[in-house]
Structures
1.
Amino acid sequence: MNPLKLLDLSYLFDVHPGSTFMYFWPLLILFIVLFVSSFKVGPKGIASRMREFSVVGLLLTFLRDQNIPYLGMRIWLVLLFLAAVAYGIWYWKDLNKKANMKPAVEEQKQADKYLPKKKGKKKKSKRK
Amino acid sequence: MIPILYESQYISLQTLWVFVAIALLSCSYLAVQRLKRAHVNFTLFIEHSVTFFLCALILSRIFYFGLHTDAYLPGFDLRTVWNFFSIWDQGFSFWGAFIGFLIALLYRLYKSEENAWKWLDALIVPVIVGMGIGSVGTFFGGYSYGRPTDLFWSVRYEVYNVKYTVPVHPVQLYALLFFIAVLVSKRWLSKKTDFFNREGNSTFYYAALLSFGLFILEFFRGDDTLLIQGIRLSTFFYAFFSLLSAYFLYKRIRQAESSKTHPHEST
């Protein structure tokens, strides 16, 4: 397999890419494993993203396997993986940001403890 | 497959039309029940049912005629006019009928100053049920069949109206499963959110989901129709309606969210 092919637009946008492709089984196993493991992942956001990724991936693999014109183009699977990578990077950056902000947030919480509570808030909690 | 349910010297009962009749009857029954529950003037639906039926019939024929120009319009002469009126050749388009019915209904609602959203919310479920029953009929009759495939759940038709002799996708059954999934998803979501309490939201939800699903399913179809750049004409319509209804659905979701965060601003 030549990865440089992925830079060839005519390869990516081939309307009838053919139903035989070597990465059918690896993709199928990957998406199924991801879907099943999403139920055991702790953070809810990641679990639902994993489920979405695997369901869309399974659908695209099926469309590719059936050589459905336009919907079976290679570009869709490439875009799906790019989106997953982009989400991964964003999530990692977000985690880092939260980790950096944690001491400041904790400090603020400690300081807020000594402030008088707002009256409005108290009333609301009473109503509940 | 069973394209003909019963055949004798005088009469032949085609499976597709039996299912169409069942779909129409169950659709009408369900529509009346839901309209009653929606507290609208449902007698309007019964009073003008003949007009609705005729509008649906005419538009259905026009659509079918337009989509099969190769068969009906080899050249314009008197025979073409005759071909249009010879409805016993069973050339009808479901979407033509649907649009004809919708135009007649909306016109009548506008004239009677009725709330159209309430009507559409009530009628869209019977339409989906009818489409589901109809798809069973097309499956047994060998209409709207799929592309060739080697999947283990593929079906092989041995009827004159199917051009493939190899196994094909049971695309009619995919459609049936999809309709069931759409109805179930709405029911499930209704329990989780009050979004569907606002009139018109159910219509947009169903319209967006249905047109998107049917857009995907169109690519699995193998029967002949008008093609543009190798894509079925209806695919473009589904794509357009899918985007349009998704846009309105998105707007409604945003409105619902903003009215939750700023309850006093909403009117």
2.
Amino acid sequence: MRRALTLLVVGSWSCAPSPDDARVPAEGSGSEGLQGTEGPDADSSESAGPLPTLLSSTPALDEDAVYPSPLWSGDGEEVVIELAFSEPMVLTGELRLTAAEHERPIAEVVWSQDSRNASLFVRPDFSNPRPLRDETEYALDTSGFISAAGLHLDPEIGLRDGILVFTTGRFDGLLNHSCGHTFFGPFADLVAGPQPDDSAPDITTTHTQYTVALLPEESAFSGWLRATFPSVGPYRLYFDTEVTLARFDGGTMQPMTLSPTARVCPGITHEVTLHPAAGEAWLLFVGPQPSSPVHVIVELTTGDY
Amino acid sequence: MLVIAAACGDDGPATSMADASSTVGTDGGTSSTGTGTSAVTETVETTWVGTEGAGSQTTTTGAPTTTGGESETSATGTLDPSTTGAPETSETGVPEPSETGSAEPSETGWFESGSDETDGAADACEYAYREGHGDLFVVFDGSLDLAVRAAFGGPAETLVEPERVCVFVPPESYALAEAMGGAPDDGAFAFLGVPAGQPFWYLPQTPREGLPWLGASTEGVPGAVYDRNELEIAIVPLAMPVGGNVSAWSTDTFGEPTPIYSTVTNVLTFPLLVGAHEHFHWAFTVAGTYTLSIVVRAARSGVVESSAPRQLRFVVDP
């Protein structure tokens, strides 16, 4: 369910500021960025040149399906909003990230040395156990950023009325759970088998990140794996790269199509869901791959993670 | 017949996995031999006293109902978790952890029954669970039992009898809750037993460096064995620090908490479907050692089967 957006506008201008409106004196207190400077020169604001702009942002304006709870490190889930500016900027006052029915605080702002890039961190709290909510439109008011000349960002470049708007997608508990295993294990190292038989190493154990060394094959790498599924599952295989994968059914190779996952963690990029019969053993061929090893995690899809 | 050693008894009989399942009587209840209800009551009242030990206890598969209450089993699969008040509490000593994984698991990852390895195990924290993934794992080998599944600092996860495990909840977990603003000013979190804004020792539902990531798993239970594929886990606190409470909860996407377990509000059971794997938030309000007695049960053709009570310790702010 998508939630309606209420734009929350703060600062000295209203919905459609002119460039002149965007020029405001800097506030001395609470300024961040512009490291090593004294902050913007309010006196120069009226005579300043073109407005600073937002060169890029992650998420981008109107981006959809932004993952609400990524796990970029072992320090917990956090959403990072990356902003790149055309010139050094400073942050005056509070940043506000709002949705129709709630607001999320920016827990931390980390600046690049040249103050042209800011990383905004949104973290969970007890009432908001994930940084952002599912399928919700958020608005980041950027009016707190001003340049050394005291200018606000151009409100229509990479922004809409000075607001960065984006919408979150759905949380995938199993994917997040598996991401946890990429950081914290348990881990197991395997060497892929050369042929489709019982010599192929088993990857059946769930909640384990397997590092699979593939066998060199001319200029590529490949090998066999085996999985025996105790129940009907479905099971999901998570990989850290896009792999060419096929199931050998005893007679023919059945290619399997992997899908990219949401951008949740560095260690998982692709997935495929398997629907075995209970007790069934599958032989899987990985490759040809341009590099080795590959990492894979097997998970049973039922549960609340 | 089930015989289970009290968690901290130095001389008690080793827990026998082969014997650890309940037997199901024809009356629909869980039958047992031994001292029955009174034994369970004694177990519930037993507090863990560190290395001094509490002496061995025998008990039955009748799931404990309450501190000082009667043991009950029912044919409906529902245990009355009501308690008459706070469980017995005591200031407990902090067990000394031994080297991680000092005992060797069997090939199957599950301990063979009745070895001397379990003697006095609870005092020593043979298996220190300090960080990474772990589960209260429901074991099924024709009947129900519980284990802790974790890697314990090693390369692979293994199943260990809960009595041999200490879950260490470090000071960093308190700092984390503090950084998150402490207990919310929200009546929905009353089950924590923590005033608004006040921190506590917190293990999040999602993994964090340096903290245990403890959930529950029924992935080892086959389908179509138990009615509606439903299981229930019941947890009774045996010993807690004075003033201490423990709770576990999950949250939906909007942050609404669902208490799964709380010694504050006496939510002492929670359901799990076969094949489930769930993780929760955990909260502890006071530093010290919490000893919980845990039972898993389910109905098969209307007759409740229950595991032996298993004891697991959480060592908070060691």
